[in-house]
Structures are given as structure tokens and as C-alpha cells.
Design goal:
The complex is a heterodimer of chains A (226) and B (389).
Chain A (H helix, E strand, L loop, with lengths): L5 E2 L11 H14 L3 E7 L2 E6 L4 H11 L4 E9 L38 E8 L11 E7 L6 E3 L8 H12 L2 E3 L25 H5 L20
Parallel strand pairs in A: 3-6, 7-8
Antiparallel strand pairs in A: 1-2, 2-3, 4-5, 5-6
Chain B lengths: L4 H15 L10 E5 L2 E2 L4 E2 L1 E7 L2 E8 L7 H5 L4 H8 L7 H16 L5 H29 L4 H21 L8 E2 L2 E2 L7 H24 L2 H7 L7 H6 L5 H4 L7 H4 L21 H25 L18 E9 L2 E9 L7 E5 L1 H6 L2 H4 L5 H11 L3 H5 L1
Helix pairs in contact in B: 4-5, 5-6, 5-7, 5-12, 5-15, 6-7, 7-12, 12-15
Classes of the chains: A alpha/beta (226), B alpha+beta (389).
Chain lengths: 226, 389
Amino acid sequence: MSETDVSNADVGETAQADPRHTAAIATLNEVLGEAVLAHHSQRGELWVRVHHEAWQRAGFALRDDLGCRWFDFLSAIDWLPSPFGRDMDAEQDWPTTGPPARDTAIEVGVAGGETRLQVFARAQAVEDNPGGANLSVTLKADLPNENPAVETWIPVFAGANWHEREAWEMFGIAFIGHPDLRHIYLPGEFEGHPLRKDFPLLARRVKPWPGLVDVEDMPSTDGGAS
Amino acid sequence: MTVTEREQRAFIAAAAADARVNVEIETEGMTLNIGPQHPATHGTLRIVARLDGEQVVVAEPIMGYMHRGYEKLAEVRTYPQVTTLINRIDWLGSFANEVPFILAAEQLMEVEAPPRAAWIRTILFELSRLANIALFLGDMGVQLGAITPVFFAFRDREFVLNQIESVTGGRFHPNFDRIGGLKDDLPKGWIEETRGVMVKMRNFCDELEALLMGNEIFEARTRGVGVIPADVALSYGLSGANLRASGVDWDLRRDNPCGLVHDQLDWKVWTHPDGDSFARYWVRLQETREATYMVEQMLDGLPAGPVMAKVPVIIKVPAGEAYVATENPLGVMGYYVVSKGDLGPFRVKIRSASFNNISVTPWVLRGVYVPDVITILASLYFILGDIDR
């Protein structure tokens, strides 16, 4: 995966790159300059990582210069490996051994990343445009670990309103300039940000996962009364 | 009892509406609460509308009554277990929910389903659409005061559900799609039965066209009601028939067919320039009929061969990120899957169609009359599970 990552310095050297993507990156470099940090192409999709201070400008560039006028979604990723792991045992199974050692190193995905929280959004062109038909771009931006905040995308795509409310409630990311940042799914008094990896899924912590054993004994083999 | 932030806001909204007095007809403002339990909301959506006389000043949808947290739950499940969850997102067309997720996982694993599996997948995908949209076509009539269409819809949808059930074993939650193919092949005699059902569905479309399309009341209540221009539809991320009814000629089945076989069929994308409730109904009606022709073509051209590729028993998906979206009955549904080479996904972002489709309601409901609220909600067609996830 990493070998296809290219920084914006060696854009010209990407062999067999999608010409639409090359053109799109050139346009973004022109409009945003230093703010374009990395990009990645894979199966017709283009990922571009921008600086979080240029997030809204990048949105406008995406819409106006690349012609991606259809807003798809906006959300975030918490790259911290879950301190609770993915394993299926409940906390009550650990009283003597304690929780197993876990890898806490952050490994980021395509187009790289430097911090724990990353906001990402996707837009697509639905008609002929300078970037070519059906160009779709996923923008990413790393957020600072302390007080993650980024400018709102509502001026770019009106539909970002609810997506930002969701990202705010689930990840605790502030969207500067959002007029109506309040809970969308959870009750108003809810504390915490459920989709952050350090938010425990309590149902899993207190009770062993019944799906751990997928295969049940046949009634005839369990030895009991049938 | 503590007062929640939401209740505080509702109180403030009510006070603000009461303070408004319409000078012309001297009516005081009021707050009308529609839902959470209302037939027009297909579940538990609540709409708080501040009224001025009979006109809506501000309408605010409140959801979360059915939030199940699938994105969080998916992080502690294995890939095959996730399909059980996502079946429940759009419960009327649930096989279609599984498809983009399975395709995303296959893309990360670099596995491709055998041709026969891809064709059967597409058949079931379109059958889900028929079962889903048939209910819309009847339900829209009910919301406007015509009872008969919904009986026809429930009657004829059952034929489609029977076909889905005889393949998958489940009427609503098939859980039939597997990474690398399908659980089983089609049962014996299924193809001929399905041909008969497609004829029935076309008759159903004709009946509804005769009942509603030429109906004076239906036209009067839908024409020009809830107009969404194309640029608004694009910026809110509307998709599916809602977008095509605003004149945007865009359908993922034609424009980005990843893994499904729509590109090998002869069919047409229907659009309508008006962008009103009538256009949305009309586009869906045409799409339903088009889907029956697509299914018939696929039944004719179904290739032979296995329905399952070679995949390991324990599925580990290599690290990477993939986003796959398909044109589901309700609109574009996509899964952004982040894998770290584990048994289960690291993060799944579910991009559901109804969430975006319904996010336009505060914009489109401003200034409409109260009965039109129901028309517009019905014509936007959402499933609550698809909003709340």
C-alpha cells in the first residue's frame, strides 16, 4: 500500500497513474499549494490528505475546481488501536491474569497521517467537469490531538451539517463555524464520544460474548436428556 | 427529572413560535409535533414543526430513536458477522445492504466472485429493489388518502419476497451474501417462477399507474410540492430516485458498476426534470418496471459455474482502506471499510442513503403547508433504520 503513496513532490513520476487523478492533483497543488500533503490512488478512487487548516479551502477546491459537486459523506477515523482489543473475552475473565498486552502504536491507512484523529470526506462528480466524468475524491485531514477542531464544510456542501453533528458527537471533533453543533443520535445528556477507540463497548466488557463459540453441540451429542 | 438539552430547545422553539403573530389572519404560531409514531415516518422519526397559520416556518427532524450503533458494533465483530448487522439497516431491501460491504471486503482481499455469483447477486439486488419500492408505490397513495394502492403493494410484494425467501431462506434478512460469492445456488424451478413474478410486478406497476398517475387528486397534491432543484440535491448528497427526479442523470449501476453486472444489461436510467413529489413518484415507478426487465434479462443470460470462489475458512482481510457504494433501492449506500489485517474491520463508516436524503427536509419543508409535509416525507422515501443505523 505504501509504495503507491506519493508525496506531492514527485507527482510527475507516478507511472500508470489515472490521468484524471494526475490532473486533479495538479489542480489541487495549484489551488492549495503547500497544504496538499499526500495522495493515493487505488481502483479509480483518489485520496488526498490536506492540512487541517486548509480543510474548508480544500472543500471549495474540490467542489469548484474539480467539479465534485455531489456530497457523499463526512466522518472521522480514530487511528488509536483499541485499548480493549478486538478479542471476545469480557473483563471479568481477567481477574488473575489482567488484560493481555496490546499494541498501542498507531498505524495509519492510505495517504498517511500523523495524528490520532483524522477527518475524512468524499465528494463525487456526477456530470462532465474539468476533472473528467465521475471523478471521486476522498479528502483527509489530520487533526491536532489536543482539542481537535476543523472548519465546517456547511458553506461548501449544505448536507455536511448533519454529518458534522454526527462526527462531533461520535468523535468529539469541533467544527468551527457550525451553527448548530448538538447531539443528533444520542440523548442530550450523553457524555463521551462513542466511536473513539478508548470508549469501551460496555456490553462487551461486562458479559462474555455469546457468539464466541459459533458452533453449538448437536442435541444428541451433549450427553443430557434429549 | 432533569431537563435535556433537546427539551430545552423544544421549549424555546415553542415560545418563539407563540411570540409570532400572523398580522394578516391573526393566528398565533404554534409548534406541531409529528411523530415519533406516525404512519408517514416509516418508523420513529419525529418532526417538530413551528407553524404560522397553516404554513411551516421551521421544521426540524429529530432522530436517534432507533440508533443502534452499528459502526461501533462492527468494530468488535468478524467480517461474516457484520453482514448480520447491516441486514437491518434498510430492512425492506436487506439483501442490497449486504452487497456493498461484501464488495468492499472482496476488494481488500482481492477476491472476485465467480460470474454466476455476480449475476445471482445482481438478480437478488434487483429483487430487493422491487420488494422495497413496491411498498413505496403503494404507501405514497395511502399518505395522500388512497387506501387501495397499499393493498395492491402488499399483495404483490409478497410474490417477490417469496422468491427471495426460496433462495435465501429469509424474507427480510437474507444474510445470503458471502465474501467470495454466495451461500447457495438457486433452487430448482426458481427461474421460471421468477419470470411469472416479473410479469405480475409489471401488472402491478400498470395498475398503480392507472390508479394514481392519472388521478386528479394525486396530481393536485404532488405536482409542484416539495421542489428540490438539482444544485440543492447535489449539495445535500441526495441520491437514488430523489436525485434523478431533480434532473441529474446519475446512477451508480450504470456509471460505476463495481462487482455487479448491470453494465452487461440493456436498460435505461429514468430522470425527471421537475424535482417535485410527483417526479419522485414517477421516477420510482419507471425504475420498478425497468428492474423487472433487468431481472428477466439476467434470468436469460445467467452463466453456469460455481457460486463461491476459493476463500479461506477463517477470513482475514489484508490491511487497507476501501470504499464501495452501490445504487440501493433508497439511493447510494456505501461502506468505507478500514482493515488492519484482522478478523474484523478496524472501522466501518456506513454511508446510508436515507440519512442524506432526509437531511434536506429542513430546507424543503420551509414554507410548505401542513398536509404537504406528509406528501414530501412520503415522496422522499426513507427507512428509519437507514437513517439511524
